[in-house]
Design a protein that fits this description.
Elements (H helix, E strand, L loop, with lengths): L8 H4 L7 E7 L1 H4 L3 H11 L4 E2 L12 H8 L1 E8 L7 H14 L4 E7 L3 H5 L3 H13 L4 H15 L4 E4 L2 E3 L14 E4 L5 H7 L6 E12 L14 E9 L12 E4 L17 E3 L7 H7 L12 E3 L20 E3 L8 E2 L9 E3 L8 E2 L11 E3 L20 E3 L8 E2 L9 E3 L8 E2 L11 E3 L13 E2 L5 E3 L8 E2 L2 E2 L5 E3 L8 E2 L11 E3 L20 E3 L8 E2 L9 E3 L8 E2 L11 E3 L12 E2 L6 E3 L11 E2 L7 E3 L12 H5 L4 E3 L7 H8 L3
Parallel strand pairs: 1-2, 1-3, 3-4, 4-5, 7-8, 8-9, 9-10, 10-11, 11-12, 12-13, 13-15, 14-16, 15-17, 17-18, 18-20, 19-21, 20-22, 22-24, 23-26, 24-27, 25-28, 27-29, 29-30, 30-32, 31-33, 32-34, 34-36, 35-37, 36-38, 38-39
Antiparallel strand pairs: 5-6
Length: about 675
Amino acid sequence: MAFPINQGDSFSSFTHWWNYDVFLNFRGEDTRNGFTGHLYHDLCDKCIKTFIDNDFQIEEEISEELLKAIRSSKISIIIFSQNYAFSTWCLDKLVEILNCKQNGQLVLPVFYKVDPSEVRKQDGNFKVALTEQEIKFKNNIEKVQRWKATLKEAASLSGWHYEDGILDENALSLQKYNMVEPTWSSSLSTRSNSCLHMGSDKIRSIMWCSPNPITVQLHAKAFKKMENLKFLMVHNVLISKELNYLPNELKLLEWHEYPFSLPSNYCPQQLVVLEMPRSCIRLEKLFMQVHEAIGSLDKLKHWTLSNCKKLQILPSTLRLKSLEDINLCDCVSLEKLPDLGAPNLEELNMKNCENLIEVHEAIGSLDKLKHWTLSNCKKLQILPSTLRLKSLEDINLCDCVSLEKLPDLGAPNLEELNMKNCENLIEVHEAIGSLDKLKRWTLQYCKKLQILPSTLRLKSVEDIHLGGCVSLEKLPGLGAPNLKYLNMFGCENLIEVHEAIGSLDKLKHWTLSYCKKLQILPSTLRLKSLKDINLCDCVSLEKLPDLGAPNLEKLIMENCENLIEVHEAFGSLDKLKWCILRGCKKLQVLPSTLSLKSLEFISLCGCVSLEKFLNIHPEIKCGRLNFGDNNIREWLLSLKYLISGLTQLSLDNCQNVGDSLVSISGYI
């Protein structure tokens, strides 16, 4: 099946700067002998120099030669398939491709028999694959997080959706890359200007790119004879003179860092895509010139103004009924977002609009909006008073440091809510507690947050992050049967954890470190899926109860200075690998017998109140023991079972080891 990329002298001129026109990133076992193989041959037949990796994966790391091939390609095509994320090679190459995108590489995703939302939200096979990667790279979880972020970014790009032999261009608005013959492209060879000066009404598309910024002398009427030009893409090309003419038939206009206003006689009613990031364009002047034509462009689907740092005002009247996404990222001078008149808007990116104060009330009624990013809008204080965002899937309010209250979003389909570093947030609306499709909720470092919804019925939520919410005193009942991750790190004033938390039978990871005022855990705990719990520096906790956690692998209670007793049940956790009780100065009571068959490391360093060491089951083969700085007086003979398999033993400043330990060990 042929791709909508055309032959001609367009791509041959790229090779002056790049080794390859196209780099293919794909999972071999899924598509090598099918879709990808046919695509590769189609591209080669059109004289498009394409790199395909014909070697099967034999190493964990991708080679330097492969990295060079990615970096020296003008375009990367990513073919997402069902098993794509199971391959670390594919994921590592994807990271490099997205890095190259920042330097001007064109990146085009193809969703081969997978839904783009499955990749973006990491559901289905992608969820399974990434869970496996988390297990495989448990000691390098940052790598997996980087893969997740890169997948989300790549899946948010415009791309092709291939399903059962049909390439659906309309669904993902790929008209912007559909180069209609004949196409003219240039890598700024000597003939570039002469071709533009001559012009021709036969030219339909121009892709004018340079790997490095360059300034050219372009005639003001260079495009005068190109009346049928549909697509104009310019990257890293600066012109020294203002243009007097642009064709009115343009459907795609993408010109990065355009230094002037658009020509006064340009009427852009045919535009489907307008991308002018980092440009100095003065929109208010443009709109007056063309009688606010942009505001009534009923065909415009994609509008990018990212990094237009001097942009202060958007048109007062906007009627963009076909608009699907608008990117205002890093428009640091923009103070107000007006009514966009965009009933079909799906994505609104306002990241780093640092001076944004106000969002128009009409934005609250965009019932097709799916993705809304407001991160680092530091002056934003008020969201629309009424929000009915019934299609909203994720909203990012990270670093909105002036926001004091989160209202009812009217978003029954919300899956991700990020409010990290909303330092002045005090209250979350009661309705947020009933978002039964919410999967991830981040409130990390909301330092003034005191009030959560009194009732939380979040039946789909898997991850809640409350780390650094230092004003929070009580965690209410969590009706969250699917919760897996609960992070309450540094909730210094937390006194109470609701009894319902003890029944979260899918909870795997629970962090309560530095909850300095926490005295009591739920009286009944049935945490059958729990793998690790971190109670480090919970200095007010006196007793560790039975967690009802048969699958617990890691217990961290370092510096629990007032801990006196550990429940007897901990002695029978046969999957426990790490037990760290270092610095528990008042600890006196441990389980009478340790039957921890999986134990790898135990630390009782600094447990100065512990006088008797516990009985050891013969099956324990622990590798590392740390008993330094304690006053243990009685060492049972069963200690020999631990010593027999040791690779590391620390007894620093143990005053009472004596001859008994020497006789037990037989080798000291």
